Every structure is written in C-alpha cells, then in structure tokens.
C-alpha cells in the first residue's frame, strides 16, 4: 500500500479527473489527501469532491493557491466545475488551506508519503519555502512535468511548467528530495485514445461525473484524449510502464518567451529521473484493469 498526496489543477484539462479516478480505484493506493492549485482552486476542490463522492470515498480535500509566482495567470478558470451541481459534493472549501494541510500530512507520516503533483507546482514550491523540512520527509516526488528529449518539432514548454516556471524551478532545485521522478510530454504524448475508444471504454461509475466533459473535450480538441496525468500516477504502481533516464533538470526562467522550457542533462550522479520511453499497450491494459 502506498500513501499518496495528490496536488492537482483538476478542472482544466480532462486528464486530471481521469487520474483521480484511477487513484480512487487503485487497491494499492491510500489517498492521504487532495490539494488543488491554479485559478479558482475552490471550484477545483468541488469537482474533486464530486468524483470522490461518486467513488464512495471520503478523502480530505483542501484548496490551495490560485495565482502563480511572478508570472501572469494562464488558466484563471476551472471550466469543468461548471456542471457539477447535479452531483453530490462538498462546497465549503476554505481558501489557501492546502499548504498547511500538506505540511501536516507529511510531518505526521515521515518518509511514507509520495507527493504526486499533476498541475502547476505553486503549492509544492510554497510548501518547500514555508516548511523547508517537508522536502526531506517525503518518501518521493512524482511530477507530470516537462519536455526533456526534444522529440517534438521544436523545444516547447510543457503546460504545467509554463503555468508557473518559477515554482517548477524551486521544486527541481530542491536538494532535500530523496527521489524525484518526472513524466513529461516525451512519454505522455504516446498514450492517447480516439473518441471511439473513449466512448467504448469509459464505463466505470467513478468516471460518470466527468463524462460530459470528456464529450466536450473530444468535440473541442482534436478528438483524442491524452492520458498525461494518469500515466504519471500509474507509474507509481507499475514502474515498468516507463523507462527512466537519470540526470539533472533545469527550468528556464530568465527568458520570458522561453519560460518553462526544461533542459535535461544525463548524469549518473543526477538527482532526477525522467520518463524516456513508455509501453503504451501495457499502460492502457493496466489503467482499465484498475478503473472498471
């Protein structure tokens, strides 16, 4: 059993909800809490509550910071929270309560908590700045973050890093984290489902509150659903889903136009492990064996 603390910007891209559904169904996961980050964090917390309630789980949920460090807000709203009125959920979320909650969970469970961060890293950076002892008390950190091997047409910044590059830099540069893993676009862009496959396979009860948003996502985007965040979550329970390269990650913050670009330098002495390859078929078999 793994104790997971989830930090998420659920309510923007659809994959956060799909990742939360996986964690709620994963029998080896003890979800110690959920914290929300980025614009309208209280509404993001309500959406997380609706999914947890649909799964029959009572998980501590706390809303965090809504604004990034030193940069403009790129996702001010949580559009997927617009339609949760039809689903039972909590609505009484105090603002800016996430960081203190994260600190309490980590201190009360030293060397047992894996922090899974699948949104902008503002909450996590504030945690490490406000309570510096917490980084060294974590078992490990898993991020959905970055773009490391330049396999796309041009170097681009991954969205979570781009939304708060300064927070990302603070987290990657922390020297006290024992193990830091990052699953970036190099791997996640290989795990996609067509609209037809989505409609056929999204049958689990835990996914019902997000099905309308899955439909809208398929309509407004290119028709596919990319499992960015679920891949990062699943790697915690099946590490063989991805191969990881060891090295050091640096985050661009000096150049505003290039802010959020991540640079990976391979090294046997590096403190970071980034996903290099992914077994796509194995991932989907694993995900839908858990979420069913």
Structure description:
Strand 2, helix 2 (41-54) and strand 3 (61-63) form a beta-alpha-beta unit. The protein has a nine-stranded mixed beta sheet with strand order 3-2-1-4-5-6-11-9-10, with helices on both faces. Strands 7-8 form a two-stranded antiparallel ribbon. By secondary structure, the protein is of the alpha/beta class. The two termini are 20 Å apart. 53% of the residues are buried. It is built from twelve helices and eleven strands. It is globular, with a radius of gyration of 17 Å. It has helices at residues 15-25, 41-54, 98-108, 122-130, 133-137, 159-163, 165-173, 185-188, 195-201, 211-220, 228-235, 280-290; strands spanning 2-8, 29-36, 61-63, 113-117, 140-144, 180-183, 192-193, 225-226, 242-251, 262-266, 272-278. The longest helix is centred in the N-terminal third of the chain and has 14 residues, at 41-54. One of its GO terms (cellular component) is cytosol. One of its GO terms (biological process) is purine nucleoside catabolic process.
Write the SSE topology.
Layout: E1 2-8, H1 15-25, E2 29-36, H2 41-54, E3 61-63, H3 98-108, E4 113-117, H4 122-130, H5 133-137, E5 140-144, H6 159-163, H7 165-173, E6 180-183, H8 185-188, E7 192-193, H9 195-201, H10 211-220, E8 225-226, H11 228-235, E9 242-251, E10 262-266, E11 272-278, H12 280-290
Parallel strand pairs: 1-2, 1-4, 2-3, 4-5, 5-6, 6-11
Antiparallel strand pairs: 7-8, 9-10, 9-11
Helix pairs in contact: 1-11, 3-4, 4-7
């Amino acid at each position: 059993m793994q104790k997971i603390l989830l930090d998420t910007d659920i309510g923007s891209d659809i994959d956060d909800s799909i990742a939360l559904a996986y964690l709620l169904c994963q029998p080896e996961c003890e979800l110690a809490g959920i914290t929300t980050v980025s614009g309208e964090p209280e509404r993001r917390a309500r959406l997380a509550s609706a999914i947890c309630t649909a799964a029959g789980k009572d998980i501590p949920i706390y809303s965090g910071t809504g604004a990034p460090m030193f940069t403009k807000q790129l996702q001010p709203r949580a559009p997927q929270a617009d339609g949760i009125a039809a689903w039972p959920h909590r609505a009484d979320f105090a603002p800016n309560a996430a960081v203190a909650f994260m600190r309490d969970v980590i201190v009360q469970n030293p060397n047992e908590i894996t922090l899974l961060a699948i949104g902008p890293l503002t909450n996590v950076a504030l945690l490490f700045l406000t309570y510096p002892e917490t980084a060294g008390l974590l078992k490990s950190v898993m991020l959905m973050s970055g773009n490391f091997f330049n396999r796309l047409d041009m170097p681009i910044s991954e969205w979570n890093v781009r939304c708060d590059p300064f927070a990302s830099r603070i987290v990657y540069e922390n020297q006290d984290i024992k193990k830091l893993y990052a699953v970036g676009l190099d791997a996640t862009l290989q795990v996609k489902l067509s609209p037809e496959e989505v409609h056929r396979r999204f049958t689990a009860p835990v996914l019902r509150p997000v099905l309308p948003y899955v439909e809208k996502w398929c309509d407004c985007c290119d028709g596919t659903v990319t499992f960015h965040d679920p891949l990062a979550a699943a790697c915690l329970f099946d590490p063989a889903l991805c191969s990881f390269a060891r090295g050091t990650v640096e985050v661009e913050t000096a150049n505003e136009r290039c802010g959020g670009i991540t640079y990976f330098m391979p090294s046997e002495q590096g403190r970071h492990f980034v996903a290099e390859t992914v077994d796509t078929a194995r991932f989907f078999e694993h995900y839908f064996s858990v979420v069913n």
